[in-house]
Automatic annotation (TrEMBL), chain A:
The protein, known as: Na+/H+ antiporter subunit D
Spans through the membrane: 6-25, 32-52, 72-97, 109-126, 132-151, 163-183, 203-226, 238-257, 269-292, 299-321, 327-347, 368-390, 402-422, 457-477
One GO molecular-function entry: NADH dehydrogenase (ubiquinone) activity
Top-rank lineage group of the source organism: Bacteria
InterPro entries the UniProt entry points to: CPA3_Na-H_Antiporter_D (IPR050586), NADH_UbQ_OxRdtase (IPR003918), ND/Mrp_TM (IPR001750)
UniProtKB/TrEMBL annotation, chain B:
Localization in the cell: Cell membrane
PANTHER family cross-referenced by the UniProt entry: NA(+)/H(+) ANTIPORTER SUBUNIT B, NA(+)_H(+) ANTIPORTER SUBUNIT B
InterPro entries, per the entry: CPA3_antiporter_subunitB, MnhB
Protein name according to UniProt: Na+/H+ antiporter subunit B
Originating species: Ferruginivarius sediminum
TrEMBL record, chain C:
Subcellular location: Cell membrane
Membrane-spanning parts: 6-21, 28-47, 75-94
Organism this protein belongs to: Ferruginivarius sediminum
A Pfam family of this chain: Oxidored_q2
Top-rank taxon, per record: Bacteria
Name of the protein described by the UniProt record: Na+/H+ antiporter subunit C
Length: 506, 139, 148
């Protein structure tokens, strides 16, 4: 069991290393990439099964006992998220076979992709807050590479904004960790959970908590700090923006959920109300931004920001039901957002156009693409019985129970506006006849060439699987709901987490 | 750069710098040094070579793609943590193997050493890639 | 000693903030470099500045004899320096590429990825005149009076 805990880190590292060794052999890299994500998914499923049956598991790296060494911990939340990481990784790896050209493959797409998965997996699994910073950096540097890969003008422009704001965010995180270490003298998250509530200087800890909120908020793209996301996520190839949209912001959200339920249990009145306010603003501003955009993937980027707001209100409510809704929403959002970005990439590619003003007639010319888009888009909008409906119901119910009526109203309005934004894409890009204007390619976006039938099948298979998945977790909501509830209960009462980590050496 | 002095000096210095980098790397376990700084020194040798003879010749002298060197290092570093599986210890536990040689040399082979070699190679690969990329962009 | 270092960290952060708020990409990167150094110094200060023996365990003991200096902040800083070095190197390469692609280091003029400003031009200064894009390598040094 010990070894399954390092699986989400070890397998992508080895895959990345082997892909680097096969630098000049793109065909071999493709095979390795596919096999790597497949093996990762199998191991992560076993890990999840083990955690589901046996509770929280932990291992001390290099046999250095906690709280001095680095601990790898898996509870229900992190096990669920690593399974999803592997699942989306597999889907995007298959999509990338048809989407990423040879010129990107020979300049390091596959190694960077697996380095990204390593960073994400490490961030979900670590039990040490400085180690969390390191995994953030692994993830960030791999995403920098993926963002700039290909060096198209738009990519470089988006990349500059992405890189600068993420560099500032990680530095803020480093400052916050340094201050926390200075005040408490420990970096192990379970140990911090014991030290922080008993610490004499609560005021300082609340300030540090605010710094963590700022740093993770920048990573998660919440309201006043999200500008880097819509400026950059639509510029790289669809496979890259899909994996970014599915995972990167979620790591920020995960870190926020983890630190604010486990460590910063002091001053929750301040921090949770701040998170709640930020969440409400994020979801409203995000969806309003989405309505104003033209480029399809920019519309989706703003919807992504809006979804982060939903997750945050679940955390900000501070109840088990709210957290369960947030976790359910996270799972739903990972699946749906990657699906949407992938299908939008296919649509933009077959239509040779980026913007809603130039797209059109896709329902007639590409019925399968249209149906797949419709399923995932309606799921994002929260139309029953798709997967977006249940977490929204839970979140609205949780906010009503907490008597946060404004939050409930904001969530409902956001749901409505999301539906509007999705139907706008549907009616403009798919339903109406193709507009007469000459399709003008966005500046700097390479035309990847015609799309053969075989390649299109490769592109659409992962999208179809994601669409089936969102249908499945919508129609059979109970298993995921019980997972979310168990994860939420464990987060609100983290005794098992703390004792598992700290008693490991005893 | 077309300078006889630089060409001749580079040929001489290359071997010295590379040897020194290996020495620094092995020294690193108990004294100042280590894989990172050793890798930087070795990378500086290759950067010097490319400054003297040009990036194309530097790539040729490496024989393998520079990122494959980093990949090899990453593989060593990752696999060094896996050996502890055979000893029943968690990931990255240090294992030591001191063979008895009938000579006066104390030889200690360990997984931390393998990890350090991995770091050394990763640093060489990454720095050389960036440096050669920059140098080619200037041309 | 901690107080002095804390003031130094504060000054560094102030300089970094000033530089990051600039429109020039190179200044922003310099600001980030200073900010990450400030963060490293902060960790160093947070780990308490002491004059003690190095944290080495003598061969015949299990724990060091007597008081010893805290080695952890240095390990943390070393990690942060290495990571910061890598990130900054990447950011420099990227800015160079951006300059080559767009012939400017003015971040306000970089609108390739986003829709252009409504009037198709970069924002104007307070007096209504257009702020000059700073083009390195073009004829003449950038003029400053329009920006004031």
């Amino acid at each position: 069991m010990n070894w399954l805990l390092v699986w989400p880190i070890l397998i992508p590292v080895l895959t990345a290393a082997l892909c680097l060794l096969a630098w000049n052999a793109p065909g071999l890299q493709r095979t390795l990439s596919f096999l790597g994500t497949f093996v990762l998914l199998i191991g992560d499923l076993y890990l999840f099964a083990g955690v589901w049956e046996g509770g929280v598991q932990s291992v001390q790296m290099g046999e250095w006992p906690a709280p001095y060494g680095i601990t790898i911990v898996a509870d229900t939340l992190s096990a669920t998220l690593v399974v999803l990481t592997a699942l989306i990784g597999l889907g995007v790896a298959v999509f990338a076979l048809g989407d990423i050209g040879v010129e990107r493959e020979t300049t390091g797409f596959h190694p960077l992709f697996h380095a990204l998965l390593t960073g994400v997996g490490g961030a979900f699994m670590t039990g040490d807050i400085f180690n969390l910073y390191v995994w953030f950096e692994v993830m960030v540097i791999a995403s920098f590479g993926l963002m700039a890969l290909g060096c198209e003008r738009a990519q470089i422009d988006g990349g500059v904004k992405y890189v600068i704001l993420n560099l500032i965010a990680t530095t803020v995180l480093l400052v916050a960790i340094g201050l926390l270490y200075g005040v408490t003298g420990t970096l192990n998250m379970a140990d911090l959970a014991q030290v922080v509530p008993q610490h004499a200087e609560q005021g300082r800890l609340i300030v540090i908590a605010a710094l963590f909120l700022l740093a993770f908020g920048m990573k998660a793209a919440v309201f006043p700090l999200y500008f880097w996301l819509p400026a950059s996520y639509h510029t790289p190839p669809a496979a890259v923006s899909a994996i970014f949209a599915a995972l990167l912001t979620k790591v920020g959200v995960y870190a926020m959920i983890r630190t604010f339920t486990l460590i910063f249990t002091v001053g929750q009145a301040y921090t949770y109300s701040a998170i709640l306010a930020v969440g409400v603003l994020t979801m409203l501003i995000g969806v309003l931004g989405a309505i104003a955009q033209n480029d399809v993937r920019r519309v989706l980027s703003f919807n992504l920001v809006s979804g982060i707001g939903f997750i945050l209100i679940g955390l900000g409510l501070g109840t088990v039901l709210g957290l369960a809704g947030a976790i359910y929403y996270t799972v739903h959002h990972i699946v749906v957002m990657s699906g949407l970005f992938l299908v939008a990439g296919v649509a933009q590619r077959v239509a040779h156009a980026q913007g809603l003003d130039a797209l059109g007639g896709l329902y007639r010319s590409q019925p399968l693409v249209a149906v797949l888009f419709f399923i995932v888009a309606m799921s994002l909008a929260g139309v029953p019985p798709l997967s977006g409906f249940w977490p929204k119901v839970i979140l609205v119910q949780a906010s009503l129970e907490a008597e946060a009526y404004i939050v409930a109203a904001a969530a409902l309005v956001t749901g409505l506006l999301t539906l509007y934004s999705m139907s706008k894409i549907w009616s403009l890009a798919f339903w109406r006849a193709k507009p007469e204007v000459a399709p003008q390619a966005a500046p700097g976006i390479l035309d990847p060439g015609p799309l053969g039938a075989g390649r299109k099948a490769v592109l659409l298979t992962p999208v179809a699987l994601l669409a089936v998945l969102t249908l499945a977790i919508g129609l059979f909501a109970q298993p995921l709901l019980s997972i979310s509830e168990r994860a939420a209960v464990a987060l609100m009462a983290p005794d098992a987490y703390i004792t598992t980590v700290l008693d490991e050496e005893g | 750069m077309n300078s006889v002095i630089l060409h001749t000096a580079t040929r001489l210095l290359m071997s010295l710098i590379l040897m020194f980098s290996v020495y620094i790397m092995f020294r690193g376990h108990n004294e100042p040094g280590g894989g990172f700084i050793g890798g930087l020194i070795a990378a500086s040798a290759i950067v010097l070579y490319s400054a003297a003879f040009g990036a194309t010749w530097a790539r040729q002298a490496l024989r393998v793609p520079s990122m494959s060197i980093a990949g090899c290092g990453l593989f060593f570093a990752a696999i060094s943590g896996v050996f502890s599986a055979f000893a029943g210890s968690p990931f990255l536990t240090g294992l030591w193997w001191i063979p008895h040689l009938n000579i006066e040399v104390h030889l200690a082979l360990s997984t931390p050493l393998l990890f350090d070699i991995g770091v050394y190679l990763v640093v060489i690969g990454a720095i050389v890639t960036i440096a050669l990329e920059m140098e080619e962009a200037e041309d | 000693m901690e107080n002095v270092l804390a003031i130094v960290v504060g000054i560094l952060v102030a300089c970094a903030t000033f530089l990051i708020l600039s429109r020039d990409l190179i200044r922003i990167l310099l600001g980030i470099a200073i900010l990450s150094n400030a963060a490293n110094l902060l960790i160093f200060t947070a780990g308490r500045v002491t004059r003690d023996a190095p944290p080495l365990v003598p061969g015949d003991l299990e724990v060091p004899a007597g008081a010893y200096a805290n080695p952890l902040p240095q390990a943390l800083i070393l990690t942060a320096i290495v990571i910061g070095f890598g990130l900054l190197a990447f950011a420099l390469v990227l800015s160079y590429r951006a300059y080559v692609a767009m012939r400017t280091v003015d971040v306000d003029a970089m609108r390739e990825a986003e829709p252009p400003y409504p009037d198709q031009s970069p924002p104007t200064g307070e007096d209504g005149r257009q702020t000059p894009l700073r083009r390195r390598g073009a004829a003449g040094t950038p003029t400053r009076e329009a920006a004031q």
